[in-house]
Specification:
With 196 residues, this protein is of the alpha/beta class. It has one domain: Vaccinia Virus protein VP39 (Rossmann fold, 3-Layer(aba) Sandwich), CATH 3.40.50. It contains nine helices and seven strands; from the N terminus they run H-H-H-H-E-H-E-H-E-E-E-H-E-H-E-H. A seven-stranded mixed β-sheet has the order 3-4-5-2-1-6-7. A hairpin with a 7-residue loop joins strand 3 and strand 4.
């Protein structure tokens, strides 16, 4: 199918913030994602105490689920409202501090220390700021990234994971001529060229 109609589409940071302000967040799921539950063994691979990254995390409930299993969760989200809602909806106390390397960014960390959510553009992150991860749960990030930014996104993601780490990716399949996105349609061939 032709993705030409979506190729030029750009959703601005302001539009994402507005979605959260207007509670126009149909992409948020109140329940844990069944695919994460199904492929949890692939992500964990028998290991405990992992650092797991949630790109464009919103207020994903799976972050608490994995943290409760003893893993460290790090997320990045442009909406401060989403980050604060995550902590309040799970009754998790947290502290907030600036991120010295990123102008205007904040890091919200659970007082237990195992959930750290960065409030900034994902493109402001680097491994020198957040370290490297043992796994990634990408449920709605790649499909939310503007098509023109996919290569930049994939390169960043690859730089943030330890070698041979599992990367669980959920995409959506539909006719891109009938829906302008997001979520954007990412053909399997493009996923292979982005991530190898």
């Amino acid at each position: 199918s032709d993705v030409g109609s979506q190729k030029e589409r750009v959703v601005t940071e302001e539009e994402w913030l507005q979605k959260w302000e207007m509670d126009n967040i149909g992409f948020h799921k109140e329940e844990g994602h069944p695919l994460l539950q199904k492929y949890l063994d692939v992500l964990l691979n028998g290991r405990s105490g992992l650092r797991i990254f949630f790109p464009l995390c919103g207020k994903a409930v799976e972050m608490k689920w994995l943290a409760d299993m003893g893993h460290s969760v790090v997320g990045v989200e442009v909406s401060e409202q989403a980050v604060k809602e995550f902590f309040s909806e799970h009754s998790l106390p947290y502290c907030e501090e600036p991120v010295p390397e990123i102008s205007g960014a904040k890091m919200f960390q659970s007082t237990s220390g195992n959930i750290s959510l960065y409030c900034c553009s994902i493109y402001d992150l680097s491994s020198s700021i957040v370290g490297k991860f043992d796994g990634v749960w990408d449920r709605g990030a790649l499909v939310a990234v503007n098509p023109c930014d996919r290569q930049r996104y994939a390169s960043l993601m690859m730089s943030l994971v330890e070698k041979n780490s599992p990367y669980l990716l959920v995409t959506v399949s539909y006719d891109p001529n009938k829906h302008k996105g997001p979520p954007f349609y990412v053909p399997e061939s493009e996923i292979k060229s982005l991530f190898g």
